[in-house]
Amino acid sequence: MSPQEHGNAAFDLAGQVALVTGAGRGVGRAIALALSDAGASVAVCARSENEISGTAAEIAARNGRALAIRADVADRQDVERMIAQVERDMGFIDLLVNNAGVPGPIGAIVATDPDDWWRTMEINVRGPLYCSAAVLPSMLKRGHGRIVNVSSGSGFAAWPMVSSYSTSKAALYRLAENLAAETRAHGVQVFTIMPGFVRTAMTEYGRSCGEPSVEQFFEGLIARGAEVAPERAGQLVTFLASGEADALSGRYVHVGLDVQEMVARAQEIEDRDLYVMRQRE
Q1: Rounded CA gap, 135 and 152, in Å?
Q2: How far is the C-alpha of 76 from the C-alpha of 111, rounded, in Å?
Q3: Residue ranges for the chain with pLDDT beneath 70
Q4: Which residues are catalytic?
Q5: pTM for this predicted structure
């Protein structure tokens, strides 16, 4: 049985403080709402103040506790200021969800400005690194904490014309695995999730980007009915925040998988080194 079949009410996150980046819309917003519905106090961050204010207002309307902070995760000073504000106004962070990201430039590498290409890495990888580095000292000192990176299936294969995005998402898998290996013995768990094909502003951009192969890719997903509701990601992150999946730290989890079944197979998954990026001989 998957966490989606339980609903958020099955998990009591009261007393937990969560920080969700990129929480103004789409997957990030759905995750923030799900965590709040389960009882967590939720800080929401994004570069758009209007969007995160809307998410915070919705949480408040559902009798939750929210804090909206405008911040750029690629700016180290912004991140450190944000973490300090959350700790001051809500308490130490128990759960960090690194969701903020951009699609990056679409087109052949040879025709792309390298600085534009690298900017994607700064937001999609350096941002999670900054945020993780800022929350880890407190988590390690308390012997408790969880970090969830929101990645994509595009990190597992070459995606011509979308190289900066797919490269950044591949890096997130390895970042999470390394963090998990370094912190597991100290009570901190780290996961990577794949939310599936969610219709967001990012995917709509891909549908009209002007690159035929990319537009056809997205249209094909829609034609096959591959769309996944963003609420599925919220339910999955809530399950991870509950602690029931801590044995899977360092692994990636797709919203379509039965996570409880994965937990039951945790020893086999560790022994066979499954749900990680590995070289295949």
Answers
A1: 23
A2: 30
A3: 1-9
A4: 165, 169
A5: 0.94
